[in-house]
Amino acid sequence: MSRLKNDAEYKKTRAFRFFRWMKGEEDPYLDNVEIQPGVPFQDSRTVNEILLEEQETLEKVYNTASNRWIWRFRRLYNVLSIVFSLALAAVMLYMVAKLPTAGTVDRPVNNEVSKVYIENGIQDTGAVNIVTGMILNYRAFDTFGETCVLFIATTCVMVLLMKEEEKIREDQTLNDRRFEPKNDVILQKVAFVLVPIVFIFGIYVILNGHLSPGGGFSGGAMIGAGMILYVSAYGFDKMQKFFNEHTYKVVKVAALCTYCAVITYYLFMGANDFDNHISLGVPGMIFSSGIILWLNIFVGIEVACTMYAFYALFRRGGL
Amino acid sequence: MSSGIRALETTYHFLFVGILIILGVMLFLCLLRACMGPTVADRLVSINMMGTMVMVIIATLAVMMGESYLVDICIIYAMISFLAVIVLSKVIMGVRKQEETEEVEPEKKQEEDIFDEMIEQESEEFHEKILQKEPDGEMLKEAFDEKQENGEREEA
Amino acid sequence: MEILLWIRFILGTLFLLAGMMLFVVEIISVYKLDYVLNRMHAAATGDTFGIGLSLTGLMILNGLNLTTLKLLLIVVFLWCSSPVSSHLIAKLEVATHEGEDRYGKVEK
Predict the structure, then answer these.
(1) In this predicted complex, what is the ipTM?
(2) H-helix segments, chain C
(3) Which of A45, A68, B16, C21 has its CA 20 to 30 A from that of C43?
(4) Predicted local distance difference test score (pLDDT) of residue A232
(5) Does the beta-carbon distance from B75 to C77 stay under 8 Å?
(6) Which among A83, A127, A90 is positioned nearest to A216, based on CA atoms?
């Protein structure tokens, strides 16, 4: 609705189309982009007849009793494949033996780049674990891209495989636990003991990411593994009491957005060459190394959600 | 004193390298078993064994190199291999049961069709009984009783 | 002092080699036995007793620190998890009836 133009004229403007698209009333690409329906399969024979015919011709062609060349070729192929894989393995082992031994000075990896990281790493980032300092402080924007890749991957799988909750409940054949032995008591008792241990170990790995090897990716994978163990023991109905689709959306989007906000603030306000007013703390303590601890937590949440979402989507068609 | 300790260190090194070689050979044999195994359960058993041996290898390396972080990796490996066996066996069991039920289902459908036909025939007989004779109150009651008795017998 | 170190070395080596022996027995029996439910018997021996012995040997060789505690955690975790995975594999074998033609029916 415009005050300057009348309705018919206003409907031709770009602003009207833009707002219509924003509201989702009409999709401008509806008939232009999508695939046209294909021509139906036209053949007098049925599919089974075609397959049978194909099978018969194949049997005639590959009949080793009448056709000796096929038989010879097959024997030669087997021998050659074994020889080729052995030769490849031999070449690779020879090359490995010729490589410079790990940790020597004249190794081509030992250049000034790694020296700078090792010398200035603790001062710049405050992380005792230099690897975490590199991936979450020097190259934090790169890690943001990796986290986005995880997010987009789950979104694509959801677009392809997700069904509505009511539909899953209606169509009982898609409920995966119909075809499984329900409520395996032994597995449930063991999962009751092991799942908390797995969760606590994963949280330990995430929180100690800047002090010891590990960090968000491996810790998040462990928490996701714990969730999959819980699901395979107790089923999706019990899982949905504390982790359903709504929780998934909120947690995952919040983690990604907070990561983005933190890293943007850090890059514009306090990156290496500027005045850094995010205190690094004492290296070696839990609450140190500035943003690394928080970024580790967000990455861990993202990875755990991704692991669980893949399993649930492929298994059940919904979270 | 120092020469004795040095001898101890070399023996440690030889012990660990020997154990790693033995475990590597056995890992290869396990892999062969997993390739050969005729059933799915065979393969799962040998993969579980491989996981155990890899855990021992990682623990040996951790003690040999004096790096405690390798033990963390060992714990993670134990968890993931346990999870792999559980999820794989459950998924394969579900798929197999689904196939079995799909094989059984057509027969069931036939039985249900026969049952439906029987019920239809009975209802036709019931109508005929009513139509042949004049609709009396007692007649209807008798026919109803008969029908109910038949139904009860079938249910039982 | 040096003698104590040697005693520790010998003790740890004994445990470690016993664990290796169990692994070798496991491999041989996995190749020699016919049926999965029999093979699993041997595999479970290595999964629990073999890894317990070899990690005990490594603990003795390592001395007392945080690594020893983590090794103990691995043993406890495996003793919890290995029987469950064996149970599920046996259930899978019974559910799928794959070896029924060759080895006879399994009583439920």
Answers:
(1) 0.88
(2) 2-32, 36-45, 51-62, 66-96, 100-103
(3) B16
(4) 87
(5) yes
(6) A127
Contacts of C66 in chain A (CB under 8 A): none
The alpha-carbon gap from A28 to the nearest alpha carbon of chain C, in Å, equals 53
pLDDT at A318: 80
DSSP, res A100: P
What's phi and psi for A68, nearest 5 deg? Answer: -75, -25
Cα dihedral A298, A300, A304, A309 in deg (nearest 10): 40
Q: Residue C16: which of B60, A253, B136 has the closest Cα?
A: B60
Q: Indicate yes or no: CB of A190 within 8 angstroms of CB of C81.
A: yes
| A25: three-class secondary structure by DSSP | coil
Domain-located, residue C108: no
Most confident of A55-69, A195-209, A235-249: A195-209
Q: Which residues of A touch C88 (CB under 8 A)?
A: 184, 187
In a domain, C105, yes or no: no
Strand ranges for C1-108 from DSSP E: none
Q: Does B85 touch chain C (CB under 8 A)?
A: yes
Across A150-154, B34-38, B80-84, least confident range: B34-38
The residue assigned the tokens 């018997």 is: C41
Q: What average pLDDT does chain B have? A: 79
pLDDT greater than 80 at residue B116: no
Instruction: Please tell me the predicted confidence (pLDDT) of residue B29.
Output: 92
Residue C72 belongs to what domain range? 2-98
- Residue with tokens 């170190």, as numbered in its chain: C5
C91: in domain: yes
CA nearest neighbour of A243 among A161, A203, A180, A252: A252
The residue whose two tokens read 């078993």 is B33
The token pair at A65 is 């009793």
**Other residues' Cβ atoms within 10 Å of the Cβ of residue C8:** 15
Nearest to A157 by CA among A24, A254, A30, A248: A248
Scan for tokens 């990604």, then name that residue.
Answer: A256
List chain B domain ranges.
Answer: 2-155
- Decide if A229 contacts A195 (C-beta within 8 A): yes
Q: How many residues does chain B have?
A: 156
Domain residue ranges of chain A, discontinuous segments joined by +? 62-98, 127-316
**In total, how many domains does chain C have?**
1
pLDDT single digits (tens) C63-108: 888 889 888 988 988 888 889 999 988 888 887 776 666 666 666 5
Which tokens is B99 given?
């196939």
Helices B2-36/C2-32 angle, 10° precision? 10
Query: Could you tell me if A213 and B72 are in contact, meaning their C-beta atoms sit under 8 angstroms apart?
Result: yes
| CA–CA distance, A267 with A141 (Å, rounded to integer) | 9
